[in-house]
Automatic annotation (TrEMBL):
Gene3D superfamilies in the record: 1.10.1740.10, Winged helix-like DNA-binding domain superfamily/Winged helix DNA-binding domain
Lineage: Bacteria, Pseudomonadati, Bacteroidota, Sphingobacteriia, Sphingobacteriales
Coiled coil: none
NCBIfam families in UniProt: Sig70_bacteroi1, sigma70-ECF
Pfam families hit by this protein: Sigma70_r2, Sigma70_r4_2
Record-given protein name: RNA polymerase sigma-70 factor
Amino acid sequence: MTLSSAISERKLLHRLKEGDQEAFSSLYTTHHDALYLYAYRLAGDEDQAADFVQEAFMYIWEKKALLHIETSLIAYLFRAVRHRFLNLKAHDKVRADFAANFQRHLDQSAYAVDRIIEEKELFEQLQAELAKLPQKMAQIFRLRQQNIPDREIAEQLGISEKTVKNLMSQTLKKLAHTFKRFVLFLFA
């Protein structure tokens, strides 16, 4: 930048700070195309590039009284466009992360609901199958579900511990035939 262009840029900036619309129009006309090309190279999208440039100029106009530019005005504008691009990318990443996390949550919730429904259906089927079993076998199975040791089950029912184990084994074989998946779920 030559000395005369630096002086004229300082005068333009001073006029802009005072609210001179003509100075702003001159600034816009002089730098718009270069900023647009830069923004387009960053974004790869014409509409986004136009938005970045427009936002940078709007910011300059809105904050004109507060502007404190140490470098050249064009360098400031290029940084403003780049800043808008980086903000958009950060925002897109946040949105993508949120969408991925939300989808993961939905998938987990759907899985949990499916699992609850499946467990309820299996439990109802189990109750129906237990009703078909001889009384002692069903009692032993229910007591085992409550984590009561075989010794205590034997005492409660007045049978030997070995009988408890044998009846439980027979019960599991009968249920396994009907509920292969459920038996694995129960005793996994």
